[in-house]
Amino acid sequence: MDALERRRLEWSCRRGMLENDLILQEFLRRHGDGLAGDELVSFKRLLELSDGELWDLIGGRGEASDASLAVVVKLLRNCTVQKQ
């Protein structure tokens, strides 16, 4: 991912719901440089969800209807429980 794409992702992670915003920013901090291929595509697809849908996935109150999103959802969930 080049610098321009990284900045676009950072902008897309800015959400109306602060909780999502914080988790997405932490996710990018931890995993952004390693995102490529299917994981990058899945992350971009997750960013298209509404704040409520995304929050339900992150919080475990819902599961991704598409199995290809499951890997990134798992990484997002880990951003809520680990502190580095």
Name some characteristics of this structure.
84 residues; 0% strand; globular
Walkthrough of the structure:
With 84 residues, this protein is mainly α. It has five helices and no strands. The chain has helices at residues 3-12, 18-31, 37-47, 51-59, 70-81. Helix 2 crosses helix 5 (70-81). The model has no long low-confidence stretch (mean pLDDT 89).
Strand-pairing-aware structural class: mainly alpha
The N- to C-terminal Cα distance equals 24 Å
Mean pLDDT over all positions: 89
Main sheet summary: none
Shape: globular
What's the layout of helices and strands?
Elements: H1 3-12, H2 18-31, H3 37-47, H4 51-59, H5 70-81
Helix pairs in contact: 2-5
Concise structural overview:
With 84 residues, the chain is an all-alpha fold.
